Amino acid sequence: MSHSQHLITLTTDFGHKDGYVATLKGVILSIASDVRMIDISHNIAPHDIMEAAFVLKRAAPFFPSGTIHLVVVDPEVGDNRRPIGLKFKDQIFVGPDNGLLSLVLSREAVSQIVQLTNKTFWRDRVSSRPFNARDVLAPAAAHLSNGVALSNMGEQTQELHPMHWALPIADQQGVQGWIVHIDRFGNCITNIHRSIIEPIQGDRVFKCYVGNTVLNETGCDYHEAEAGDPVLMFNSDDLLEVAINRGSAATLLDISKGAPVNIVFGEEKTLSFQNSFFDSDQPTQK
Amino acid sequence: MSHSQHLITLTTDFGHKDGYVATLKGVILSIASDVRMIDISHNIAPHDIMEAAFVLKRAAPFFPSGTIHLVVVDPEVGDNRRPIGLKFKDQIFVGPDNGLLSLVLSREAVSQIVQLTNKTFWRDRVSSRPFNARDVLAPAAAHLSNGVALSNMGEQTQELHPMHWALPIADQQGVQGWIVHIDRFGNCITNIHRSIIEPIQGDRVFKCYVGNTVLNETGCDYHEAEAGDPVLMFNSDDLLEVAINRGSAATLLDISKGAPVNIVFGEEKTLSFQNSFFDSDQPTQK
Amino acid sequence: MSHSQHLITLTTDFGHKDGYVATLKGVILSIASDVRMIDISHNIAPHDIMEAAFVLKRAAPFFPSGTIHLVVVDPEVGDNRRPIGLKFKDQIFVGPDNGLLSLVLSREAVSQIVQLTNKTFWRDRVSSRPFNARDVLAPAAAHLSNGVALSNMGEQTQELHPMHWALPIADQQGVQGWIVHIDRFGNCITNIHRSIIEPIQGDRVFKCYVGNTVLNETGCDYHEAEAGDPVLMFNSDDLLEVAINRGSAATLLDISKGAPVNIVFGEEKTLSFQNSFFDSDQPTQK
Q1: Same domain as B173, residue B144
Q2: Last residue of a domain, one of A94, A122, A157
Q3: Are C116 and C135 in contact (CB under 8 A)?
């Protein structure tokens, strides 16, 4: 067992108020007294599988090889969603098989999927109603960190409940995507990756229609805009992001999660902007 | 000293914003550099002893033997509430003697109560006004985790400030209880334990009057109801709970903490519901 | 390397929702797998350097010698603010050189300042846009905890971006200060330290004009006032604080951050209050 298997992360929609997360941690420490636990987020909007997937997908790759990610966001709590564990690249993910893990992982890089059916590794029932996170999933993560092989924890399966991100639609004229996340600062993150735009864009400029405004490609960073001005840029994950320097783009530009984002390519950058086809656009900002 | 004495949990109403919790942790780590600390909750409503007691009572049993629980919710801060430490079953609790610990623990299972009067284990004063959590309670928890015997930390006492949960009232016709906690999801948890209802219920059905509605005993789980439908069930702590599948029961059924919950037993389950005495009830939901 | 260099604290305005903090922790653990991490606060108001400085300045001294404080609140994110590390007393601080650290530290006790220019200790770029907290600052903190000397991490400098707290103005008649922080309880903390008032005050009483009220010096503690009554006192950091027993002074007295606080000295305490010059003040409270 490598050292980093001593690390468990937790991602839930349990919040910080009710002690649910502490219960999971108590259960884990009762089984694996030396394991380290790191909170990824417990403020996922209740039942929001996609938000949990977005946050976990972004953070997980920064954790060491061998890390065990425990994920519990489950609108179907109590349902017959199978508790599963799986290996993805050099990490292990544990959670209900409700589609969340499909959103986080590329199916082809998943090397092993196990239904956590082996009751040896479940917690003894303390009430007549099971609480899968406490009684099955947290104990599984703890036993894995103790070095129990995933293959011992239940039956292997090939099935993973499928769920898919809506992908941006691209052609030579433009790209349509969506706002997939709004962060604490009100920055609006799209599902449009740099690798989608650049091959099509070539030397052309583009404009972006989003919320109540239209933005030019600026290529600049937050601070290079005047305070209060919107900025359109690729963020540190290379996703197109709409931000406002020292302000909330979500609030000021009236952008909500799921809002459409339309990229329209224009003239080549070497042409004078005066002659571009955008002249009549009368953008409301910038 | 057993290994698990290296574990301290923290439950406070200090919030996550002001750095008060970090100050306690810095003090603890300055005394016990290897101790592990787990947050149970710092989002207890300000001064809400009962909420803190409910959350801690539910989470504490899941922690290992030897765990030290540091609890600081104190409306009488600065008052002459005695800082105490006590042993309950195989764990230690440290906090002000303001009734909170009485709510968490069964008095008869408390094996030792000590007033933390031994200033050897206090923090050196850094200001003219003491901050008991920082200067007395956190250092006590840290020294306990270092293996100092509780009996060395002050004078033994038999007194524990008494505070009692309001208990449900039950007779052959029904049970009256209260909503004691509303969690992040809007699930409304009552103080009615399965063990109170079942001996009286026998084979009878029951109805539950709560908030703006009346609910039948369903026996089903969140997901078995249609989305938006209310569910009445015993939760994973065997307490009766009112929930709404993918919604907030508190909001939609107008239920607040402290609201009364009335259980009324009806006909035996084998009778047709059509003939039951509930026919004229015209429940507003379900 | 002393043991306590294994301890990193984190103070950011990243919130608990988006997983940004977890990304930093994953990066740190990938470099320094044994380091301990303690959150000071991630709920600093977005871009609020002064709030971050106030919270960190108050908590940092309670951490052990050798602690590494990682601080990321940066309105100019992406700007050419230099990432720096510095030694202050027996601790190390790492963050952008945007004035925040000047507010936390006394310049004369800073023994070494290093620009983190040595790319050996940066994270490999994972996107075209750098994220300094993830790619430079967190790795620096991790390498420092591994025992790398601060002097190896870049060029020494004497410059520290200066930023200063507004200091109270004092004369024989009184002291004018400001509310610098409002905590979770609504307690309003001023920038007026006990050491400013007492030498001038002598035996005189004083009154305090703040928000919509005027308060007498009470010298009492929260609990000694009736519930709902305002209290004026020196808090456990010896700063003058306006509080309301079991209530929010900020809300009830209409006090916001930055509000002026005027202390006016009156007669000597031995005189009867009846004869004092305050008789005609008609205070609205107390």
Answers
A1: no
A2: A157
A3: no
CA distances from B187 to B51, B57, B235 (A): 15, 18, 10
Angle at C186 between CA C181 and CA C191, to 5 degrees: 25
Q: How far is CA A131 from CA A83, B80, B187, B250, in A?
A: 11, 41, 15, 21
Residue B70 sits at the vertex; the CA angle it makes with B69 and B75, to the nearest 5 degrees, is 130
Interface of B with A (CB under 8 A): 3-4, 7, 9, 11, 16, 36, 38-44, 55-56, 58-60, 62-64, 67, 181, 183-185, 194, 221-224, 233-238, 246
Q: Read off the CATH number of the domain in which C47 is found.
A: 3.40.50.10790
B164 inside domain:
no
Distances in Å between the alpha carbon of C209 and those of B62, C199, C259, C266?
A: 50, 20, 10, 13
Paired with A7 in beta bridges are A36
Distance (Å, whole) CA C121 – CA C37 = 19
DSSP code at position B88: E
Taking only the tens place, the pLDDT of each residue in B234-267 is 988 889 999 998 899 999 999 999 999 999 998 8
Q: What share of chain B is helix, strand, coil (3-state, %, to 5)?
A: 30, 30, 40
Contact between A104 and A11 under an 8 Å Cβ cutoff? The reply is no
Q: Do A152 and A183 fall into the same domain?
A: no
Contact C56 B27 (CB under 8 A): no
Assembly ipTM: 0.89
User: Among all chains, which residue has been given the structure tokens 């009762």?
Assistant: A30
Tokens of C184: 């979770």
One domain for residues C103 and C200? no
Using a CB-CB distance cutoff of 8 angstroms, which residues of chain B are in contact with residue C55? 17-19
Measured from the Cβ of residue C159, the count of other Cβ atoms closer than 10 Å reads 10
Question: What is the DSSP secondary structure assignment for residue B134, as one 8-state letter?
Answer: I
Q: What is the pLDDT of residues C108-142, one digit of tens each?
A: 889 999 999 999 999 987 667 778 999 999 999 99
Q: Do B18 and C233 touch (CB under 8 A)?
A: no
Query: Which residue range forms the structural domain that includes residue C243?
Result: 169-280
CB neighbours of residue B109 within 10 Å: 9
